[in-house]
Amino acid sequence: MSPAIAYPAEATSPKQCREWIVQHIRELILTGAVKPGEWLRQEKLAQQFGVSQTPVREALKQLSADGLLEHVPYRGIRVVEFTITDVSDLYECRMFIEGMAARHAATHISEAQIAELRSVFVRMQQRLGPVHITEYRALNRRFHTIIFDASGRSLLVRTLAQMWASFPSMLWSNFTRTAPAPLPGRDKTDVEEHGAILAALEARDPDAAERATRYHIQQAKDLLLGAIAANI
Q: In this structure, is residue 149 part of a structural domain?
């Protein structure tokens, strides 16, 4: 982490301060600047952010509740390290829940949401390769968020929003081989899979939307597990 981080003058309230710190630490984890297993010290963070320890303490509590950090008794707080089993479980849950959400979205999605989905998809096609990896992953997250928001199923929306908040890059940035760049050839197939999901939603086809979504997540799971295994 850098020696000092510019705190925005416009974040004046305690809530704004805490949320800014949460977002900043989340981004450091997402980009790999803070590694899995790394310890986060409250006093040091407060000095680096140029704030008191109180909002830092609250931000660390929130990130722990989100599942990105863990409190180890008598030792402190560190970034969660994920195992192969964790990855497999996460993607299995996603396949089931996001598949359901896509099925419902196919019959509930609005024209405005379809238009935004198309716009995000076009931008994803323009942001391929390692140099754009951070932006591409953010667009990917937005693509999936639009779909589950469009499902109209409040429990699915809450569950998936929490899941994506806890694992913003769906663990791709948590492992050495997949953190800095897509796997060879994956950027092209990933775009094709998103295109199939979009086409199913445009056709208002629940079966196709669920099937395309589940296939996409299964492919991501298999490739990520393979990449992790290759480093073991």
A: yes
User: SS3 for 78?
Assistant: strand
What gap in Å lies between CA 126 and CA 191, rounded to an integer?
10
Given a contact cutoff of 8 angstroms between Cβ atoms, the answer to whether 142 and 136 are in contact is no
Amino acid at 129: G
What pLDDT score was predicted for residue 3?
44
Distance CA(228)–CA(177), nearest Å, equals 7
Dist. CA 35–CA 127, nearest whole Å: 25
Alpha-carbon 59 to chain mean position: 18
Instruction: Report residue 44 as tokens.
Output: 């040091």
User: In the 8-state DSSP scheme, what is residue 170?
Assistant: T
| CATH number of the domain within which 65 lies | 1.10.10.10
Residues 112 and 210 in one domain: yes
pTM confidence score: 0.72
Measured in degrees and rounded to the nearest 5, phi and psi for residue 102 equal -65, -40
Domain with 112, as residue range(s), is: 84-230
Q: Which structure tokens are listed for 213?
A: 């979504």
Token match 């913003």: residue? 168
- Give the residue from 221, 231, 210 showing the smallest Cα distance to 104: 210
Reported as a single tens digit per residue, the pLDDT across 122-161 is: 999 998 877 777 788 889 999 999 999 999 999 999 999 9
Structure tokens at 48: 């680096």
pLDDT in tens, 46-86: 998 888 899 999 999 988 887 778 889 889 999 887 778 88
pLDDT of 187 higher than 80: no
The answer to whether 19 and 62 have CB atoms below 8 angstroms apart is no
